[in-house]
Specification:
Shape: elongated
CATH architecture of the largest domain: 3-Layer(aba) Sandwich
Structural class: alpha/beta
Number of strands: 18
Number of domains: 3
Oligomer: single chain
Helix content: 40-55%
CATH class of the largest domain: Alpha Beta
Strand order of the largest sheet: 4-3-5-6-7
Number of helices: 18
CATH superfamily of the largest domain: P-loop containing nucleotide triphosphate hydrolases
Length: 471
């Protein structure tokens, strides 16, 4: 947003002068019933890169905040309202990125601390000091510049650590990328292993794209989705008259992959009878369609993937030992997301950019509270679950920053066990309180009534939460 910001001091006036090389401006909303305050703010900031909007009532102010999403909000907490509402709380819930600065004639240290604990960024006293106001806005502009620089660095980092659709900078992923680059020009068959949702199909697509047959087809076969009775004819094809209903000759998936690659997903679920035929294909590079006595030679690469431990499957006689050793000459192992937590920020940015663009949303990032929630979650569904959570948040969000309230997790993992042990009872309590506050539009009296607690108790809970976060 801001390409360059320079802060200098004028020795005579002792005020801060800010110049930007970019014509864009920082947006500000002033919510105050006194027109003189609006005029004073405009005069004080007339030579600064700030675009100012004005509201004289709470509901008008909240509506402007919701539609314009300003970076800075000057709010008089005593501004009149047609109903009793905590405007500060509603703003913080709606857009956690906004810096809300309270302005009031009734200043006290206790009131300032209380406001900051509830989400305010600062507390200024009326009548407003031009010097203090300009200095505070200057800090916001400098923070915007730093945030932009951080986003640019993150984008460069994401570009540097993207590898044919895969994203990662952890040692495990960098080693995987290196192995893939070395193996891709030469492999005829390989095995990709890793937990569900870790990105095995992305690895298969990357290996095909790096191979000498990248111009050929990539055929995907879900071994778990083909009934055993149809598996042979689906994979290897059949000739006319091979069985009842075979009215014409039909090529199978392997023949369609001629000159390219076939990806056998969930190979651990392949029936034993088909495993024997696959072993022959790997040994001879030939297939024999059902009902045919003439083999057909193929030029294909075979990539198999599974989330099972095939050594255990071999020991239980559910997978052929000779096929396992044939496939595992090259074994690319993907770690779980929990084993590559250092990749989480890059993956968040990758999916945020992808789905913000897909849904036409102007979402610039994830709040610190939201990042903390994502970093402490266990991710039993791995990359696929992370992608789904961020995609859903982007689709449902109305703001420019994703907050903890935007993220929804499946409480049950694929294995049927709870996925929530990484979230404490205090975190669950915090989430429930914020869900209730959001439902009643920040009205703490109503929220306390629904929660069955006193309003002062609710304030204490929110204050405790804010102290914990700031610490």
């Amino acid at each position: 947003m801001f390409r360059s910001v320079r802060l200098t001091k004028n020795a005579t006036s002792r005020t801060m002068v800010i110049t930007l090389d970019s014509p864009q401006q920082l947006s500000m909303l002033v919510i105050d019933a006194d027109q003189q305050v609006h005029d004073a703010v405009r005069d004080a900031l007339s030579d600064m890169p700030v675009r100012i909007s004005a509201a004289h009532g709470r509901e008008q102010g909240f509506e402007l905040m919701r539609t314009q999403q300003p970076r800075i909000i000057l709010l008089d907490p005593q501004v009149p309202s047609a109903r009793d509402s905590d405007l500060l709380g509603r703003i913080v819930l709606q857009d956690p990125r906004s810096e809300v600065i309270l302005i009031s004639e009734d200043y006290s240290p206790a009131a300032a601390v209380d406001a900051i604990l509830k989400g305010a960024a600062d507390y200024l006293t009326k009548p407003l000091s031009t010097h203090h106001l300009r200095a505070r806005v200057g800090q916001a502009i400098e923070a915007a510049r730093r945030n932009l620089h951080t986003l640019e660095l993150d984008s460069e980092l994401l570009s540097s650590f993207s590898f044919h659709g895969l994203v990662g900078r952890s040692p495990a992923m960098l080693e995987l990328f290196s192995r893939m680059s070395r193996i891709a020009p030469h492999f005829r068959s390989l095995l990709v292993t890793g937990p569900s949702g870790s990105g095995k199909e992305l690895v298969a697509r990357a290996m095909h794209g790096l191979s000498p047959v990248r111009q050929g087809p990539l055929i995907v076969c879900n071994c778990a989705g083909i009934p055993e009775a149809l598996a042979e004819s689906e994979m290897f094809g059949y000739v006319k008259g091979a069985f009842t209903g075979a009215n014409e000759t039909r090529a199978g998936l392997f023949e369609h992959a001629h000159g390219g690659t076939i990806f056998l997903d969930e190979i651990g679920d392949m029936p034993m009878g088909i495993q024997a035929k696959l072993l022959r294909v790997l040994q001879t590079h030939e297939i024999q369609p059902v009902g045919s006595v003439t083999p057909r030679r193929l030029d294909i690469r075979v990539i198999a993937a599974t989330n099972r431990d095939l050594r255990t499957e071999v020991g239980a006689r559910r997978f052929r030992e000779d096929l396992f050793y044939r496939l595992s000459v090259v074994d690319l192992r993907l770690p779980s997301l929990l084993q590559r937590k250092e990749d989480l920020p890059l993956l968040q940015k990758h999916f945020l950019e992808k789905y913000a663009k897909q849904y036409g949303k102007e979402i610039s990032g994830i709040s610190r509270r939201g990042q903390n929630m994502l970093s402490t979650y266990g991710w039993p569904g791995n990359i696929r679950e992370l992608e789904n959570v961020i995609a859903n948040a982007c689709m449902m969000s109305e703001g420019r920053v994703l907050d903890a309230k935007n993220f929804r997790f499946d409480p049950v993992s694929p294995a049927g066990t709870s996925a929530m042990p990484f979230i404490s009872l205090k975190e669950m309590q915090r989430k429930h309180i914020h869900d209730v506050l959001q439902a009643v539009e920040g009205n703490k009296a109503k929220a306390a009534e629904i929660l069955g607690i006193g309003r002062s108790t609710l304030y204490d809970m929110l204050a405790e939460e804010d102290v914990t976060e700031s610490g």
